[in-house]
Design a protein that fits this description.
five-stranded mixed beta sheet; 24 helices; globular
Length: about 600
């Protein structure tokens, strides 16, 4: 037993910063040995704490003190002042603790106190490469309970009673999906699949769970296998997630060595095993039938439905597929009871939801809140609002399949749940939440997501393959100063056709970012077309640059930084921009210290 634990965050940001998790861990071990504390303090390599904007982060337990932006050079001071002398290193404290007399624990910070971590409950708390730490936090207790105390039908009923809905985007009731696949147990081969092919731009929720708590997914999939009568499962994970793959491989080996996977689990006669399948990064493989086709070794393309996967899925056998976050809720439900889970959230959206909070926001990172929490709470209270004194403008929620919300009170106070967001043309999707400020062009935002979807289209159906291409061409025309008002009607017509006729859900939801921006920011489209200007100053072909002779001091900084040699003037005299040479790079606007350069 140790008196203190040093948990080094292993989230994507902390790990990617020059591989600092391992370097910090090694330095802590060296400094603890020098201080004679090696037997009193344990160094742990954990998962993501969620505080991505302040990483690399180091947490000291049991007090829960958080140190942010920690460098290897800071380790000796933390060991000496905190772990040896019982003090603290003020300059490294997580920013909410700066200049305070009392150090607040993680749970007391503004970032965390309105969160409720269920799917992320073990991330940043346990060593994901040590099965004993998972077991110490009730790991595999739910599986044992299911196998020794409950029938498969009782397992499914508990999932139904919890009200858990799929967290991959569509929000289909998880228990109902399991029930559809539960017939003919023991008579036909069945499969359990996990969708870890996280493809939305800016989304990293599933990655963080796999890296920080892989056993929770393994245990949940084994429970699902027992419920429907499957003996084999597959985790389809992006090859671009090497740490997640590594931790999964270690966890699978540990589970097998403990008899928690394989033959005759807990001596009950139930056998179940898992295999990892690597995806090549195709966005379409986030669609369930395309994912299964890819596991079969074929090109990942969606199949017509019906038949649904619960009847004919992987290898034409009954199959259930849930995403990582959905499985991450399963064991909590069995350990705490379906009633406890159903008491969280709203009437039709139970439990919590994890969001990847990014964009123009102070606190970027992972956020898990009860369903029904308002967008205002997430953006302003947890996210810390828009930095730099800029005005909040919009949120793109749900990634390429979602839609934009506005800064209106109606939208900011809207509950984040499956049904409320649908009412305004948005959706939770997998949980990407990108905040935008006044400098964001909503036409360009719509074009960005349409370009992504068009490039990622598998090309199997005409509406998605051709329709998204035509929509992208129209958006390009508008941004290139060639748009007409008729283009707006054509965009809506194409969007309606694609949403009704595309083969899979990804194609059907592809127009959503365009439709939502047309709905709430139509005037911005009109300004691009009629006034030939981009209000946010983003669209290059709609920009003009000039210099105010009254404000210009003749410092020559703009001319020195102009790559096109388009600015002329002598020292201490007003300068001018030759618009025929100007390439509209914006360098003059950014470099001018006197506000003399006008962008319009």
């Amino acid at each position: 037993m140790y008196r203190s634990y040093v948990m080094i965050c292993g989230g994507p940001n902390c790990t990617l910063l020059a591989g600092r998790q391992e370097k910090l861990a090694e330095e802590f071990e060296v400094q603890l040995k020098l201080a004679g504390l090696r037997k009193e303090v344990q160094v742990m390599r954990g998962g993501c704490l969620g505080l991505c904007s302040s990483g690399p982060n180091v947490a000291v337990f049991p007090e829960g003190t958080i140190y942010s932006h920690v460098h290897v050079e800071d380790v000796a001071e933390i060991v000496s002042e905190h772990l040896l002398k019982g003090g603290r290193v003020d300059r490294l404290l997580y920013n909410e603790n700066e200049a305070t007399s009392t150090v607040r624990s993680l749970e007391e910070t503004e970032f965390y106190k309105k969160q409720l971590r269920i799917a992320l409950r073990n991330c940043g708390v346990i060593d994901p490469q040590n099965i004993d730490e998972y077991i110490a936090r009730d790991g595999y207790a739910a599986l044992e309970k299911c196998l020794t105390e409950l029938t498969p039908d009782e397992v499914i009923q508990i999932v139904l009673d919890s009200g858990l809905r799929g967290r991959g985007g569509a929000g289909f009731p998880t228990g109902l999906k399991w029930r559809f696949a539960s017939g003919e147990r023991g008579q036909v081969q069945k499969y359990v699949c996990c969708n870890a092919d996280e493809g939305d731009p800016g989304a990293f929720m599933d990655r963080s769970v796999l890296e920080g708590d892989p056993h929770s997914i393994i245990e949940a999939m084994a429970i699902a296998g027992y419920a429907i009568g499957a003996s084999q499962g597959y985790i389809y994970v992006r090859a671009e997630y090497p740490i997640a793959v590594k931790h999964l491989q270690i966890a699978l080996e540990q589970a097998r060595s403990y008899g928690l996977l394989g033959e005759d689990i807990f001596g009950t006669g139930f056998s179940f095993d898992l295999e990892i399948k690597l995806g090549a990064g195709a966005f379409v493989c986030g669609e369930e039938t395309a994912l299964m086709t890819s596991i079969e070794g074929k090109r990942g393309e969606p199949r017509p439905r019906p038949p649904f996967p619960a009847v004919k899925g992987l290898f034409q056998r009954p199959t259930i597929l849930n995403n990582v976050e959905t499985y991450a809720n399963i064991t909590w439900i069995f350990n705490h009871g379906p009633e406890a889970y159903a008491a969280i959230g709203t009437e039709t959206s139970k439990g919590t939801k994890v969001f990847a909070l990014g964009g123009k926001i102070t606190n970027t990172g992972l956020v898990e809140v009860p369903m029904g929490t308002t967008l205002r709470t997430v953006v302003e209270d947890i996210g810390g609002g828009v930095p730099g004194g800029k005005k909040f403008k919009a949120v793109q929620i749900g990634g390429p399949s979602g839609g934009a919300t506005t800064a209106s009170r109606e939208h900011l106070d809207l509950p984040l749940d499956f049904d409320s967001l649908k009412s305004i043309g948005a959706m939770i999707g997998s949980g990407g939440l990108v905040v935008m400020d006044e400098d964001t062009c909503m036409v360009e935002t719509a074009r960005f997501f349409m370009e992504f979807t068009q490039k990622e289209s598998c090309g199997k159906c005409v509406p998605c393959r051709e329709g998204t291409k035509r929509m992208l061409e129209i958006l390009d025309r508008i941004i290139d100063n060639k748009g007409t008002l008729e283009d707006l009607d054509l965009l809506e017509e194409l969007a309606d056709t694609i949403s009704k006729t595309a083969l899979c859900g990804l194609g059907q939801t592809a127009p959503n970012p365009v439709l939502s921006t047309l709905r709430y920011f139509r005037e911005e489209y009109r300004e691009h077309i009629l006034e030939k200007r981009c209000p946010a100053g983003v669209c290059k072909d709609l920009l003009t640059y000039s210099i105010d002779p009254v404000k210009c001091r003749g410092c020559t900084i703009c001319a020195q930084n102009c790559p096109a040699d388009a600015i002329k003037g002598s020292v201490k005299n007003p300068h001018k921009i030759d618009t025929s040479k100007c390439i509209k790079c914006g360098s003059c606007y950014e470099k001018c210290r006197f506000g003399a350069v006008i962008r319009g």
